[in-house]
Amino acid sequence: MTPSAPAAPSASTLAFVESPVQLLNVLEWAYARPGAQPQLDGVPRQRGRRAGGADLPGPAPRPAGAASSLRIVVLPPTDPMSRGQLRRVAALARDEGHEVRWQEARGSRFAPLKALAALARDVRAARTVVVGDPFSRYVQLLLTLVRAEELVVVDDGTATMEFMAQTARGERLVRWHRVGGGGLPGRIRELAYAPVSATARRRFTPAAHRGHRVEVFSSMPVTAHGGMTLRVNDFAWTRARFGPPRLTRGTDLVGTSLVETGVVDPDRYLDAVRALTLEHGATRYFAHRRESPEKLRALSRATGLEIVRPDLPLELIARRGPVGRTIVSFPSTVVHTLPYALSGTGVTVAVCDVDPAWLTGSASPRARSFLAGVTDTARDVRRLPAQAAPTA
C-alpha cells in the first residue's frame, strides 16, 4: 500500500476570501507589507499583459518543496461569473508564490460543516488571519476558532465603510442594504446565530482581547478606532504588475448590482444608463459580475452599448487597458479604487448620484444616506448630478 502524503504544514498567515475583489486586495496587502514585496531568487515578480497584448516577463518557478508563508483559502460563491473571476485571480496569486486552496463551502446542506472541519486545524494554528468580508456568516463562524494574535480586514468594497461605522458604534454587523424579514423562522435563526455574531464583533475589537491586534487595509475613506490600525491600500501591486493602459477616445460606463440587491428600481436604472450614454457618448458597459443576463440584454437593446463581462476585477481590467479616457460609475467601490489603480494615466473617473426617487419600496432605510456617503467621500473623481427620470 502506498503511504499517504503528509499533511501540508500550516501557514503562519491564513486568508479567507469569497469574491474576486477580496482576493485582489489580499494580494495588495501581501505586497504592501514592509519588506514583503514578493521576490524569488532576488528577481522581482512581473506578471500580466501590456496594453498591446504582449506578455510581461513571468516569475521564476518556485523551488520544489518551498512553503508559502501566506495560504489563501477561497470559499467560492455558486454563481459562475464570480467563480470564473476567482479562478483567474487565484492564478495570479499562485504566480506571486502564494499557496491557494479552493474550498467549497456552499451548494449542499452539509458543505459548510465539511468545510469547517477541513479548515479547523489551519485556523487554530495561524498567527495572522486575513478576512475579506466581516459580514459573512461563514467567516464569522470561522472566527470562533481563531487564536491568532493578529486579525486583518481587507476591503470587500464599500461594505468596509459600514463595517467601520458599526464597530465604532458597537452595533451588530448587518449589511447596509439588508432589510429585516423572514417572519418567525428568520427571527429564530437570528437568535440562534447571535452568540456567533457577538464573538465576531469582539474579535474585531482589539480592546476586548489583550495582545490582540486588528488591522484594516482599505481604499475606503474610513477612520480607525478602538485600537485598530489602518493602512491605505493604494493598489501598488496592480500598478507594478499591469499597464499603463492604452486610452481610447470614448467613455466607459461601469455597471452596478443595485438592482439585483433590491435597492434601485430596474426601469429607473435603465433610464439613467440610457441618459448617461447619450450625454457622454459612452460605447461600452462593464457589467458587474452579479448583474443578470436579462437586465444586460435590456440595457444593450435600449442603449446600443457593448456589454463587457470582465474576467477579472475592474481595477485590473482598467489597468491593463484599453480603457476610455472617462469612466462613469454609479456610487460603488470603483469610485474609490480606480483613482488609485489609474493614478498618473490621465483617466478621469466620474460618479453619478443616485436619485432617491430611484430607490425601491423595499430598500433599507440606510440605503439613501449610505449611497450619498459613497459619492461624497470619493477622492479625485468628477461628480455628476443624478439623471432626471423621464416625464410620463
UniProtKB/TrEMBL annotation:
<protein>
    <recommendedName>
        <fullName>Glycosyltransferase</fullName>
    </recommendedName>
</protein>
<feature type="compositionally biased region" description="Low complexity">
    <location>
        <begin position="53"/>
        <end position="67"/>
    </location>
</feature>
<feature type="region of interest" description="Disordered">
    <location>
        <begin position="37"/>
        <end position="67"/>
    </location>
</feature>
